[in-house]
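Budget justification aside, the reviewers requested a transparent look at the raw inputs and outputs of the sequence design task funded under Objective 1. We therefore reproduce one unedited record. The lines immediately below are the structure tokens for a 627-residue chain.
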């Protein structure tokens, strides 16, 4: 006899909001604005809705990325164009889900922006940028001197400055009145090519350093002649709407030329918008940017340039090219100085890209003595080991768990995210949140803390299994999945219990194991014991904020004295800055990328056993052999 639905239990849909990485259950019949308001802390809406959700202002725009939703209402047809609707845009106050959805909140309506790591170590380097300034005399064009401004420039550079070959960027010629009217001009030259012309005394030339990550994009405006960082800023990578990991985006690009073009356009527009936001703070135009360096992982480089990606999405994961690349900014649709260049940092292998080269330079790993391990933790984690015999690297598919993906109450590092977890003397849990606000969920650093605490209290076994007999372990509502209550509903900013489930713990365990196995195999190939490491450098946003004691306790990082660890922030961003202001650093980057030896983990016969050992949640090196 068929079962009848339980009328007391309403149907719910899982709503995942990007870029904050939050997911929640929404009862059937409720709008996305009501779901978005559940993301709020301290009563503030996570979506800007000035009209209070009446469908009058059109400000609460969101984009439906995946899943079924009720047809557009009359208010949406009035306030959104046909093109907007075709692009997935809807009004959160009007859109009602029919099932589970993935929804993007555009930056302009997102009330709580994610915390983006853009800082790093101070930039200490003698500037020697490829861009330099020269001032040359000109005379007005006339019958007595029938020479254009460019003819006079070429003659002066040759006769007065000894430049045997003078090139002028065609875009600059196209955008400049050829008739000379003043008495002198200031030129910006990239090596021997004129890339900008100024009739009035210009401000010092600016360069843009970009760390183009899978999740975040960090940018730095730098004075090329002094190396001074004027502005730093970060935004989310808008490609995230097509997947939180690179494999999902590569799959989208493989669907067709238009899909690949869309991903390239999103990345290029994001870099342009990031630069525009920073340049406005200086009161000048994007044309002031005369040089750019982009450090990106291999997949992001391919998607930015619309390179072939089929060979990158399947074994043996071969990059189309890992060489340094130099092109004009306008080739990437960047509206900077007409002839300005873009230098893409060389990579090393299929999933060890220019961002890793930049990280090594930014953290000075290549100059350090002894045995040094560098770990840049992210959706894809790159690891480098420097030894007296040379440098070796590998890449680990650690996945987006530390960014909050696939974790029931996981989220990115935004206001209200739990970032630290400790125990009180009576074994109660103590939390710290970003901004000191009521907790909304867990960001990556807190996840490691929770695993450590559960292990210390005997709630979680070394193999990652919750003890169902423990009084703090309960079964989740609606299924039999074990979970641990972390914060009761009354103390949260979402009005519901915040928990960590057995499935969550398994996702964290897998991410941790991928990194730990990569470290173990690199050390093994070099014949080193973890205790032989003189220094461990931890880079990246997640690496900067994780608690080293928790990382060591659960076996993510080697068990070493605290003084051997150094957290360096966004070292890839710092490396990009160094490359921006130094021609010598660019040459060094190319030599470095060629010299580091790459270890493909998937091709190692002992990787499965190393991964199995790394699954144990205990200090590295103390794992028993798996049965």
């Amino acid at each position: 006899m068929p079962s009848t639905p339980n009328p007391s239990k309403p149907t719910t849909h899982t709503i995942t909001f990007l870029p904050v990485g939050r997911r929640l259950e929404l009862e059937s019949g409720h709008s996305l604005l009501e779901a978005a308001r559940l993301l709020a802390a301290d009563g503030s809406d996570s979506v800007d809705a000035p009209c209070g959700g009446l469908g009058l202002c059109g400000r609460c725009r969101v984009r439906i990325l995946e899943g079924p939703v009720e047809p557009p209402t009359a208010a949406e047809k009035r306030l959104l164009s046909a093109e907007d609707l075709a692009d997935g845009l809807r009004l959160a106050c009007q859109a009602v889900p029919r099932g589970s959805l993935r929804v993007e909140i555009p930056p302009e309506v997102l009330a709580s922006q994610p915390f983006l790591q853009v800082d790093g170590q101070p930039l200490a380097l003698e500037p020697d940028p490829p861009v330099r300034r020269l001032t040359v005399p000109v005379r007005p064009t006339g019958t007595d001197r029938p020479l254009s401004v460019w003819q006079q420039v070429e003659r002066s550079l040759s006769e007065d400055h000894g430049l045997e070959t003078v090139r002028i960027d065609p875009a600059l010629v196209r955008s400049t009145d050829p008739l000379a009217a003043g008495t002198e001009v200031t030129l910006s030259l990239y090596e021997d090519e004129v890339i900008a012309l100024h009739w009035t005394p210009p401000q010092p030339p600016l360069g843009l350093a970009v760390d183009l990550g899978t999740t975040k994009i960090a940018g730095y405006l730098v004075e090329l002649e002094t190396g001074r960082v004027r502005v730093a800023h970060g935004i989310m990578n808008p490609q995230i709407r097509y997947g939180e990991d690179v494999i999902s985006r590569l799959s989208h690009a493989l669907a067709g030329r238009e899909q690949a073009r869309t991903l390239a356009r999103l990345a290029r527009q994001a870099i342009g918008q990031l630069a525009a936001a920073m340049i406005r703070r200086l009161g000048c135009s994007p044309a002031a940017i005369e040089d750019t360096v982009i450090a990106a992982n291999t997949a992001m480089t391919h998607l930015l340039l619309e390179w072939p990606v089929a060979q990158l999405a399947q074994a043996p994961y071969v990059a189309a090219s890992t060489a340094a690349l130099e092109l004009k900014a306008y080739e990437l649709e960047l509206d900077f100085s007409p002839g300005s260049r873009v230098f893409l940092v060389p990579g090393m292998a299929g999933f060890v890209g220019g961002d890793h080269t930049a990280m090594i330079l930014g953290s000075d790993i290549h100059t350090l003595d002894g045995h040094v391990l560098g770990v840049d933790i992210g959706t894809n984690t790159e690891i480098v080991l420097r030894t007296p015999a040379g440098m070796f690297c590998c890449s680990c598919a650690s996945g987006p768990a530390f960014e909050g993906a696939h974790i029931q109450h996981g989220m990115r590092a935004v206001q209200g995210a739990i970032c630290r977890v400790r125990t009180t003397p009576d074994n109660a849990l103590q939390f710290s949140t970003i901004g000191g606000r009521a907790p909304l969920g867990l960001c990556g650093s807190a996840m490691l803390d929770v695993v450590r605490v559960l292990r210390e209290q005997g709630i979680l076994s070394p193999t990652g299994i919750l003890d169902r007999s423990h009084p703090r372990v309960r079964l989740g509502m609606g299924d039999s999945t074990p979970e641990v209550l972390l914060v009761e509903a009354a103390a949260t900013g979402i009005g519901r219990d915040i928990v960590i489930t057995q499935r969550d713990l398994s996702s964290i365990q897998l991410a941790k194991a991928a990194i730990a196995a990569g470290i173990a195999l690199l050390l093994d190939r070099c014949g080193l014991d973890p205790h032989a490491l003189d220094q461990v450098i931890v880079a990246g946003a997640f690496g900067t904020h994780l608690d080293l004691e928790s990382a060591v306790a659960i076996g993510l990082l080697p068990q070493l004295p605290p003084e051997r660890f150094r957290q360096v922030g966004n070292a890839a961003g710092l490396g990009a800055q160094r490359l921006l202001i130094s021609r010598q650093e660019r040459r060094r980057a190319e030599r470095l990328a060629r010299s580091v030896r790459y270890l493909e983990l998937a091709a190692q016969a002992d990787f499965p056993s190393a991964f199995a050992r790394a699954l144990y949640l205990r200090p590295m090196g103390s794992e028993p052999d798996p049965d």
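The CA atoms of residues 472 and 539 lie 35 Å apart. Residues 257-280 form the longest helix (24 residues). Computational costs for records of this kind are itemized in the attached budget.
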